[in-house]
Structures are given as C-alpha cells and as structure tokens.
Amino acid sequence: MAALWVIKMDRTAITNAILALTEGETDTVALMATLACEIHNHHDFADWTGFYRVVAPELLKIGPYQGGHGCLVIPFSRGVCGASARSGRVLNVPDVDAFPDHIACASSTRSELVLPVWNGAGKLLGVLDLDSDTPAAFTQDDEDWLVPLLAQVFEKAE
User: Fold this and answer.
1) Which of 45, 48, 82, 89 would bridge with 67, disulfide CB 3.0–4.6 Å?
2) Residue pair 65/71 in contact by the 8 Å Cβ criterion
3) pLDDT tens-digit profile of 71-118?
4) CB 53 within 8 A of CB 28
C-alpha cells in the first residue's frame, strides 16, 4: 500500500508550496504550524502530524499539530519522540508496539516517523512527529524528503 502513496504524492510540489509559504519567516511556531498543516494534508498515511518543542532541558511540549489530541509533555527519556530528541537521529518505527517505552498518545497508532528539528545555529528546536494507523507507513523516501526540507525551513528560526 505504501508504494502506491509514493507514486501519488508529489513531494516537489509540496516542497515548493512550503518554501513559498514560509519564505522570510523566522518564527519557530509559525513555521511549525505551516509544515504540520501542509504535510498532514498531503501525506495519505499521516493520521497525526505535529511538532514537539524543546521547552526546557530534556523536555518536549506539544506544538502545532494536525489530527487528534497528542501527548502534552514528553521527556527526552521516554518514547520515540524523546529518543529522537535525545539522540538527534531520525527514527522510523514501522511497528510502535515493538519500540521499547513507546508512549501511546493515541491507541490507534501503528507506525511513527520522528525527525529532529535544528536551526542553522545547531540548536535543537524540537521534533517533527508523524503517526499513522497503518503499519510501516513511512519510507526512506519520506526521510530523504523531510530531513533537508526541515533544515532549509528552520535554518533561520529563532
């Protein structure tokens, strides 16, 4: 099923729209809100798309998102989002039930893609979290698309 989505989604068009919408913007929350909306509305398997912001040492709080309610607070020591923030690595989890210490913000979530979000100065701003009710919904193509897009959009973020 995921292979059909790869063919259907036009990452170039979505990227161009995001870059046009965010051009010249440096406010982190405004950038997060725009990306959450655009990605969520164009990714067939994203049931929850949003950001968790770094608000204190080792602590994430919910930021702009699309979908049902998310967890409000996630320590770096817990779950997929915490592990991504702690390690600074992209985590693509095809089966969240197999991930140690997964936090079930929604019981319907089956797979998750979490990407750290850095500004150009190397400051960790938070993580982008994509959740899906479909197992193994996210691909290497998603990672290869989102990592440079996040870097470009958040380069000058405050």
Assistant:
1) 48
2) no
3) 999 999 999 999 999 999 999 999 999 998 888 888 889 999 999 999
4) yes
Q: What structural domains does the chain harbor?
A: 2-153 (3.30.450.40)
Q: How far apart are CA 101 and CA 83, in angstroms?
A: 10
Q: Which residues of 53-71 are buried (b: 16+ CB within 10 A; e: fewer)?
A: bbeeeebbebbbbbbeebb
Pairing of strands 111-118, 91-93: antiparallel
Average pLDDT over the chain, rounded to an integer: 93
Say what the pTM is: 0.93
Return the structure tokens found at 116.
């750290």
Tens digit of each residue's pLDDT (9 = 90 or more) over 51-61: 999 999 999 99
3-state DSSP of 17-78: HHHHHHCCCCCHHHHHHHHHHHHHHHCCCCCEEEEEEEEECCEEEEEEEECCCCCCEEECCC
